[in-house]
Amino acid sequence: MSEQSWTERQKSTFRSKIGLAEMLKGGVIMDVTTAEQAEIAEKAGAVAVMALERVPADIRVQGGVARMSDPQKIKEIQSAVSIPVMAKCRIGHFVEAQILEALGVDFIDESEVLTPADDLYHVDKHVFKVPFVCGCRDLGEALRRIGEGAAMIRTKGEAGSGNIIEAVRHMRTVIDGIRRLTVLSKEQLMSEAKNLGAPYELVLEVASTGKLPVPNFSAGGVATPADAALMLQLGAQAVFVGSGIFKSEDPFPRAKAIVEAAANYDKPEILAEISTGLGEPMAGLDLNKLDDKQRMALRGW
Amino acid sequence: MKPIGILALQGDVEKHYKMIEKLGVRAIKARTPEDISSISALVIPGGESTTMGKLLDRFGILAPLREKIQQGFPVYGTCAGAILLAKNIENSEQLRIGTMDITVSRNAYGRQIESFETEITSPFFGDEAMTAVFIRAPIITAVKSHVEVLLSYENKAILVRQNNMLAGTFHPELTSDNRIHKYFVEHVVLKVKA
User: Fold this and answer.
1) Residue among B73, B71, B72, B62 at smallest CA distance from B98
2) How many domains does chain B contain in total?
3) Enclosing domain of residue B119
């Protein structure tokens, strides 16, 4: 192979950012707060872990300002596992994002689960080397985040609730929005871009391809293997599980079962088998009893 | 010919599926022992090798697949797929198929911010340069003498073949260039007796 040659490495291209999101498809990304939990998640078959200080259910109960994790915790988690390590920064807090990039996290989640740092602007994600994932409730929000440089989108659901209804609502809303674009005529698309508050070029792209330009995952409320399979059948390409694992009675078997459910999301016989005898799931919240201020999904715009 | 299967437990399955279909070859997503017995060859996609190894084992595919590959069943693994095919994985006890006489080191270029693309030119695939995308990629650190090195980057093997087994550390499926998949179909799948 002496006649072979190659060019210099081009790092952090948009393709290499989306590439990692592609590799996570069909998998389960688990929230962890310690190295021990990260090891359990990896052993259960997680494709990645999300390092954070408190899981959303605890943030909900304890209140106060929720921030980026202590770098020490992130480093401990990075050295405990070989799978990708993600971490959350506050919406608009580009310095937390800079710190997370300096720590070498594999993906940053600019997340509504933490207390927003800016009520007007999200982080300009194009300027970072590390890829970003952002939450959305509808197509317009998804396309705004992609316009800012997100390499992965996740529907928000309602974090820390153990209740899947918002995750379902957001996924259906995004998919309906995509479907609608594919049937509109060309002259309607500019008005639709205005209605969605989304970049016109991205609206045109979705109208012609019938899908988002980046992978679309689901988050917020997954507590059982059936919940994970539901989101995948609805069109999510992978699931984030936050409080659902480590707030349940017996985390390891539940984590393992959710991973197995993601791989067999359309096989009810297998889902029946792996859903058996997992102990109590996390206690859930009736979302009708939450007022808007308690809803994390309403953070970000 | 029976269809070519894409191992669909986790990873960038869809991208490989499209590559194979574009070559005019029927592809299916293979997830069960029954699926594996109905295909002429298998592509193991990129993804998380530890997750795939566990799921292969849990759903009873690992041992029969290993045996099938040892008997000459054609297989192409990319990135995680290459790790699963490797006999030796540095510093790891993870579950694997382990049929290829190669040693790999996982995430050997570093974390995600070190992921990269490069243009490779080689007589192996003709005149036109090929974009190779490396995502938290492994490095093939050693190969036995009967393993053929088809492509290298920075003097390290990135595409290797041992009879019916093809393994690459980069992701042609993330580009629109299907020359590696074409090589797999024409020179591995069709040349190895099914």
Assistant:
1) B62
2) 1
3) 4-193
Residue that wins the pLDDT comparison between A203 and A290? A203
pTM of the model: 0.96
Within 8 A of B124 by CB-CB distance, chain A residues are 1, 4
With a threshold of 0.85, tell me whether the complex ipTM lies above it.
yes
Chain B environment of A10 (Cβ under 8 Å): 116-118
pLDDT tens digit string along B61-83?
A: 999 999 999 999 999 999 999 99
Across the range B174-189, mean pLDDT stands at 97
Please, which residues bridge with residue B132 across strands?
Answer: B118
Cβ-based contacts under 8 A for chains A and B = 146
Contacts with A154 (C-beta within 8 Å, 6 or more apart), sequence order: A109, A133, A134, A135, A136, A216, A217, A218, A219, A240
Query: Catalytic annotation on A156?
Result: no
Residue (of B85, B143, B76, B137) closest to B106 by Cα position: B137
Please name the member of A4, A10, A20 whose beta carbon is closest to the beta carbon of B135.
A20
Q: Residue B154 is part of a domain; what is its CATH number? A: 3.40.50.880
Find the CB nearest B10 among A82, A101, A263. A263
Tens of pLDDT, residues B2-18: 999 999 999 999 999 99
